[in-house]
Amino acid sequence: MSVLDKTGSSTLILWEKNGVLCFGVYCAVTVVLNFAFDKELFLNVCKKAVRRRKGWDIMRKEKVGIISIHYGVNFGSALQAIALSQYLKQNFEFECVDVINYIPKRFKRINRLKNISVHGAKYFMHGLIRMSRFEKTNKKYISYLKENISVSKPIYSMREAKAEFGDYDYLIAGSDQIWNSEYNQGIDEMYYLGFASENTTKIAYAASCGKEEYSDTDWDKIRKLLETFSAISLREKSSAKIMDEHGIQNCKFVLDPTFLFSRAQWKNYEKEVVGCPEKYLLIYFLDTRGEDIVKLAKKIAVAKGLHTVLIRPVYSKIDYGVDLVVSDATPDKYIWLFRHASFVVTNSFHGVSFSINMERQFVALKRDKYNSRLDNIMNVMGLADRFVTTKEDGLIESDINYSKVNERKSALLKSSKEFLQSALQ
Q1: CB of 251 within 8 A of CB of 233?
Q2: Which one of 269, 319, 367, 420 has the minimum C-beta count within 10 Å?
Q3: CB 180 within 8 A of CB 151
Q4: How many whole angstroms separate alpha carbon 31 and alpha carbon 101?
Q5: What pTM does this model have?
Q6: How would you list the strands of the sheet with 94-99, edge to edge?
Q7: Do residues 289 and 241 lie in contact, with contact meaning Cβ atoms separated by under 8 Å?
Q8: Could you tell me which of 78, 88, 194 has the C-alpha nearest to residue 144?
Q9: Strand-strand pairing, 20-26 and 11-17
Q10: Whole-angstrom distance, CA of residue 224 vs CA of residue 205
Q11: The sheet that has 2-4: what strands, in order across it?
């Protein structure tokens, strides 16, 4: 194979012999001098030659690190990390793609104990029980992640991150609410790749702000942190717009990483929920006790002749009076539940994303805050009429026409993959 250098007057020839990449240069004297004194040019030409040569079984020797909010017991957060990591491994053949197992201060046991100790003995005991349930399930989540992707050792600080990942060729921030300063209790520079070296290419893929307002001080920090990124994409159009309005330009809108896998591909990561009714309405909610959501879901289920299955938060023991409760389960069972549901009622972004990707009939419920994420995905998929409140009956007469939805999804998925292709050249 061959690649012309920037002068257009020479050819760099590369071939493989006994598994070794070899090269030769046929060029004029001036170009020989050019290569001799411009090491960067020579290395770049070699690099481009290997990347552009299609069909070679030569693995790229570059390392990729991904930092996102994967830690915890949120199935969507775990699965978006799996999807992006596996997509990069399957389509780019890097030497390694590692998920950085960053554990923020708020998740450290000592800090969580401090938080629950200031509200009295009764709350402290209740908090200990919740912590125990969380840690038990979180171990299952980490185990599931490690079965499917490369997860680093726990990283607790910028210093540790620099030592382990500072020299990686590519670092990717995203997805999930990594730039939500309220959720993250401030601007967390780890999620802005503050540990990267000067030679590392920094990319944001499907980063989510989760909100639309920051203080002027926060905007100053954000602009500074993002100025060294080579490519930025966000999970919400509204976030891309506010970035542009505050001087951070050329931000692209892309789909959540979970859309990088098709319905058929997700089947490879699921596990059947034993004892689940054959025809059921699935209920999945976050950040609320959910009694009003369950009440609405039961009404819809009766009208449609369906059983009710609830994915209950791990820390909850409320009896909602449904046919089946699934709790303390790993993400593989949640994939199965979404893929087989007849109808879904959810207030979760990833609940909506999986409903769309699995081509399920569903309604999305508005929340007290962070609605921009749901509003965005419902609008871009042409499903704004199914974004309702619990005060509405949720009984929408028409079914979702997935031929139209899939047309929109395919176009958005194409541009999302093109973003990754361009950013990782």
Answers
A1: yes
A2: 319
A3: no
A4: 46
A5: 0.83
A6: 150-151, 94-99, 60-67, 170-173, 201-207, 231-234, 252-253
A7: no
A8: 78
A9: antiparallel
A10: 18
A11: 2-4, 11-17, 20-26
What three-state secondary structure class fits 375?
A: helix
Largest CA distance in the chain: 83
Name the nearest CA neighbour of 28 among 43, 49, 2, 8.
Answer: 8
CA distance 161 to 175: 18
Report which of 176, 161, 159 is spatially closest to residue 210, judged by C-alpha positions. Answer: 176
Give me 133's structure tokens: 């349930």
Residue 20's beta-bridge partner residues? 17
pLDDT in tens, the chain (425 residues): 333 333 333 344 444 444 444 444 433 333 333 444 444 434 444 544 444 444 444 556 899 999 999 877 889 999 999 999 999 999 998 999 999 999 988 777 776 677 777 777 777 777 787 777 778 888 888 999 999 999 999 999 999 999 999 999 999 998 889 999 988 889 999 999 999 999 999 999 999 998 878 999 999 999 999 999 999 999 999 999 999 999 999 999 999 999 999 999 999 999 999 999 999 999 999 988 899 999 999 999 999 999 999 998 876 778 899 999 998 889 999 999 999 999 999 999 999 999 999 999 999 999 877 788 899 999 999 999 999 998 887 788 899 999 999 999 999 999 999 999 999 98
Contacts of 386 (CB under 8 A, 6+ apart): 362, 363, 364, 378, 396, 400
